[in-house]
Write a structure and sequence with these properties.
Elements: H1 3-14, H2 18-27, H3 36-44, H4 53-72, H5 77-84, H6 87-103, E1 116-120, H7 147-160, E2 164-168, H8 178-187, E3 191-196, H9 203-212, E4 216-220, H10 225-232, E5 234-235, H11 237-250, E6 254-260, H12 269-279, E7 284-288, H13 306-322, E8 327-330, H14 334-340, H15 355-361, H16 369-372, E9 381-384, E10 389-391, E11 401-402, H17 408-414, H18 416-422, H19 443-450, H20 464-473, E12 485-486
Parallel strand pairs: 1-2, 1-9, 2-3, 3-4, 4-6, 5-12, 6-7, 7-8
Antiparallel strand pairs: 9-10, 10-11
Helix pairs in contact: 1-4, 1-6, 2-6, 3-4, 3-6, 7-8, 13-14
Length: about 500
């Protein structure tokens, strides 16, 4: 059975009638001991025997909902119990249902806590990428979380009910405590992934990531050698990145090639996908939306036109439904519209760039399209800066709180900024679209182009007039690119990865 069907079936069972929705609000309310939902699910699979009176009542209600959901998908009770023994699946169900219990039924739905946190683990990096949203460089920021603070943040995420944690950067592998902190996250039951530029991934590093339990590695490859090295700012980077990808595949890690679509590499995309599948043998290829933020402002003219983006997404989806081995996805929320038009195609939760979060929230029918809802910024996922600042998205540089000072749940449920980003009825352009609950437009692009979280995403053909407005008003000129360094000239202390 597909675990996604289990999540979907359980959710649909609770949404079936007004009475069940009222009961869910009670069941999902946490006590001082923690989550009644989590306790009930553990009891259902035989992992928890002693329950309080409230937990026993919650267990009976949860048992009824689960078995009703299993019937709708033709899943046996034994199959159901087998899947629910996976802590990740249990945490996924709790996360989604607590969101419905707290926020009510929404279009699209907000989860009880971020389903996924993308953690910019450090500002330090050994490359100088043209589009870097973090403006990363050779030195870490002076106020980055310490090792102990990082572990405390992970404890906070676990208490909140976060399901997946993605280490990004900068380059996360340059921090000497990376393996210690990542292993701690794995031990806390998270689906842990890493987004890397790949240049520091040796055979030893890949093997160690596998050994500590990292489940997904996403490596950036923005074209073939000349294109990639120019884009990444360091000559020789491509060869190191390709070797890093091969080491991940060889180590048995679920490996994804990620590329940011711009005019630099658009024409290379079909051959790059073939290269990723046939030569690198990765399982996934994901195309990131270009967001003109931070250093990306300097190359804003390299953004795709709405027509180019639409044609690219159609191409990616055709590869997705026809390929037997490679998943081709995109973070562009318009990809949800592309899949929605194919009634039986996999729906895409576009901000989920790791496999665990993706699998737990994807569906097979149109019925879940408006639940998943395309752009997940501030609704299904959030970003965290190296100093603990929480942002709606790593591409939206707006601080909504700090993990050193506030609980994640408090930030997630009380932030006025996050409430604003979730109200699609008030969006300009995108709020008038028939697909507003399926897609919603990229909020990062709306903010980058119009300084308005509720503004239009100009990258969509339906919003063509806003694209034309952007082009007529562009005042950002391309800054002269720095001469690329060679790998030998890059800071020596960044070329090796801490092994412990």
């Amino acid at each position: 059975m597909r675990e996604a069907d289990l999540v979907a079936g359980t959710v649909e069972a609770w949404l079936g009638n007004p009475v069940s929705r009222v009961l869910l609000r009670w069941v999902s309310r946490r006590t001082e001991k923690g989550s009644k939902l989590e306790s009930a699910l553990k009891k259902y699979v035989g992992e928890q025997e002693r329950l309080s009176f409230q937990e026993k009542l919650a267990y009976l209600l949860v048992k009824l909902a689960i078995e009703k959901g299993s019937e709708s998908f033709g899943i046996s009770r034994e199959q159901m119990k087998t899947s629910l023994r996976d802590p990740l699946i249990r945490r996924s169900i709790v996360n989604v249902l607590e969101g419905i219990g707290y926020f009510g039924v929404e279009r699209p739905q907000t989860t009880g806590a971020p389903f996924l946190v993308v953690w910019n683990f450090t500002k330090q990096c050994n490359l100088r990428c043209k589009h870097c949203y973090e403006n990363a460089g050779p030195k870490p920021a002076p106020d980055e979380l310490t090792t102990e603070e990082a572990k405390k943040a992970i404890d906070e995420f676990a208490n909140a009910g976060v399901v997946a944690l993605a280490f990004s950067g900068g380059e996360p592998l340059v921090r000497r405590d990376f393996f210690e902190v990542a292993k701690y996250a794995v031990e806390k039951g998270f689906y842990v992934s890493v987004a890397s530029n790949g240049t520091l991934i040796t055979e030893k590093v890949a093997r160690k990531m596998k050994e500590i339990g990292i489940q997904y590695v996403e490596v950036s490859l923005d074209g073939f050698e000349k294109t990639h090295d120019e884009f990444r700012g360091v000559q020789g980077a491509w060869k190191r990145t390709v070797e890093g990808i091969k080491e991940c595949v060889k180590a048995g890690l679920y490996t994804c090639v990620a590329t940011t679509a711009t005019h630099y590499n658009l024409k290379e995309m079909p051959k790059l996908i073939d290269f990723a599948e046939k030569d690198l043998h990765v399982q996934r290829f994901i195309v990131f939306n270009f967001i003109p933020v931070s250093r990306g402002k300097e190359i804003v003219e390299q953004d795709l036109t709405p027509k180019e983006r639409e044609e690219l997404l159609d191409f990616l989806y055709s590869k997705l439904v026809s390929s037997k081995g490679l998943e081709t996805l995109s973070t562009a929320p318009q990809y949800a519209v592309t899949s929605y038009k194919f009634a039986f195609g996999p729906l895409i939760a576009t901000h989920f760039t790791n496999k665990g979060a993706m699998e737990a929230l994807r569906g097979k029918t149109r019925s879940l399209a408006q639940f998943i809802g395309g752009c997940g910024a501030g609704r299904l996922y959030c970003g965290m800066e190296p100093n603990g600042d929480i942002e709606p998205c790593v591409f939206i540089p707006i601080k909504v709180g700090n993990i050193r000072k506030q609980s994640l749940v408090e930030i997630w449920r009380e932030s006025p900024i996050l409430k604003q980003i979730r109200n699609r009825d008030l969006f300009k352009g995108c709020g008038e679209c028939e697909y507003k609950y399926v897609c919603g437009g990229c909020r990062a692009r709306a903010y980058a182009y119009f300084n308005d979280l509720q503004g239009p995403d100009p990258g969509c053909s339906i919003n063509q007039k806003y694209w034309e407005e952007v082009n007529s008003l562009k005042t950002v000129s391309q800054a002269e690119a720095d001469e690329p360094q060679t790998m030998d000239e890059a800071p020596k202390k960044l070329i090796s990865v801490p092994q412990s």
